[in-house]
Amino acid sequence: MVKMNDVAERANVSKATVSRVLRNPETVKKATRDKVLAIIEQLNYQPNILARHFRRSETNTILVVVPNIMNTVFSHILGGIEHAAGENGYRVLLANTNQQVEKEYEYLDHLKQRQVDGMILLSARMDKGIIAEVMKQYPVVLTADYLEGIAIPTVSIDNVSSARTATEHLIKLGHSRVAHITGPLHLQVSQDRLKGYRQALLQNNLDVDNILIQEGDFSHESGYNQMTKMLALEHPPTAVFSANDEMATGVIKAAKDYGLSAPEDLAVVGFDNIKLSAIYDPGITTIAQPMFEMGKKAAELLLHQITGVEMTKRQYVLESELIIRDSCGAKLLNDD
Amino acid sequence: MVKMNDVAERANVSKATVSRVLRNPETVKKATRDKVLAIIEQLNYQPNILARHFRRSETNTILVVVPNIMNTVFSHILGGIEHAAGENGYRVLLANTNQQVEKEYEYLDHLKQRQVDGMILLSARMDKGIIAEVMKQYPVVLTADYLEGIAIPTVSIDNVSSARTATEHLIKLGHSRVAHITGPLHLQVSQDRLKGYRQALLQNNLDVDNILIQEGDFSHESGYNQMTKMLALEHPPTAVFSANDEMATGVIKAAKDYGLSAPEDLAVVGFDNIKLSAIYDPGITTIAQPMFEMGKKAAELLLHQITGVEMTKRQYVLESELIIRDSCGAKLLNDD
DNA sequence: TTGAAAGCGCTAACAT
DNA sequence: ATGTTAGCGCTTTCAA
Q: Which alpha helices (DSSP H) does chain B contain, by range?
């Protein structure tokens, strides 16, 4: 393994100069620089990055803690993170938790041991006190999740108002019995979407009927099962706001198996705007969450912390958008 | 930052002993060990992993080169890799290429600079000579892709025979005009699936009609467009084998927009068995590719190389399976 | 079973 | 603009 000293000797300069050529080329006279570069090329010298990391105690690596990489929403956020990190010369270390809190705690060691320069959490189920403690010492950003009462830098959408928009859309379409299938209620996002749903009903003078609020787990199957249950009600809903797109497909399938069709007999709105919602037949009306952008912004925010860039803002709320497709029936009306 | 020496002093032992307690506890007398561990606890000592990596010139990190993390197939393989790596104390560094070959070359530097202990490629579009060269020097495994004429450790399925199975399934169902929408033909997997399709036709004494073979790009839209084109043919196909599931949904949609329905008027078989194929309505008959398993196996194979475990086998071909759902019409027959 | 000591390859402060 | 030098924190060989 050829090392910096070998290059230095061959070029008749000191190690320091070689180091400078690599890290601060402008501080070296052009002639010297060219000579050194030529030798580097000739010897096919590769700097030992581990030595550099050690010496500088920085790694140019960020840790991304994901509940589940196989989930479309997370993989797209991850895509955005990877993109922004790469653009800025940083690498991404992956940490899958499989929703286990203990794993989140484990990965904290990476920060403490300086194996990474910072961390992005896509899920924060740890104790808030601990998170607050960690935040004080290391660069951390939260995205895709949200934590109340703690000033952690966060990139998110406004889930409450987005859910309100989705629900209102159904109300404006003339529905008064609008159901909601929630995500797992231990997640803040699920709580927020539920809150927005409630707000929309109340602001439109509609009663909140708890029988029309059922908890799902974001899976197609849970959407199917909860909808099947509600269809057997004496007064079944005529519209459903599902907390994500995958459950929305379960809702539509349940209606179909019950002899109803969406949107004619049941209007459905989903959430996330994953590819599935555009591909599914009928196309699913949904709230578009800028997943890639969220990841990108989160990474940028983290890199600012790492490099010490002044941050005026620490909480970013990105825009979400109602995408009207077929499942809500709005297009049916327009066709009249 | 408390360092090893601090622990040593407090425990009245040498740095060497502390190091041993951490890395080879069995070589230290129990009493000493306990004392040291107590001090470590007490001082909340965290070893500087960067120093360790540098000193040992190993990183316990593997690099995963992915064409696109946002693609379901890749994210599931990645899930398997992450799982196996984690189980064995290794970390996963993510490298997205966005299908750019130059990026693949760039990431090679991570290996050369010893920033990672090995590399898993989910796409190998680099020059074979270079790959062969790299393989000789560093642990490398290929999965999800396949390279002819080079003995690189590989984990894959048999795309040719899987595609043959898929196509034969349609032929057995009575179809003689079976179309194929391929993936991008510069990819080996697309070529292989096309080959399997051809074999099935020939083995069943059916002509290969090139007008029924159209190249897609794995997207819903390309499936839709290519199918729309074929439906306008004088003798349109009655069945389609699509090289992936997403294009299969495009095929079904195109048929629908043409006034036909699947499977009644057009039988469709996809490939991959991503979640979408189970959720879609009609459920898509497809070839199940064990994505998670592939990732897991690939990681294990790589770790064997890294740790110097004897490898009897270097090419793993995992089992794929035909999953019969609604889109092919087989269930229609059974209902008779 | 433990300690002493060298040194991994680089960077950066300081000197020239 | 370039060189000298110390040292980052750990692991490991050798000696005791």
A: 4-11, 15-23, 30-43, 49-56, 72-87, 101-112, 128-137, 159-172, 188-203, 220-231, 245-257, 275-279, 291-307, 330-335
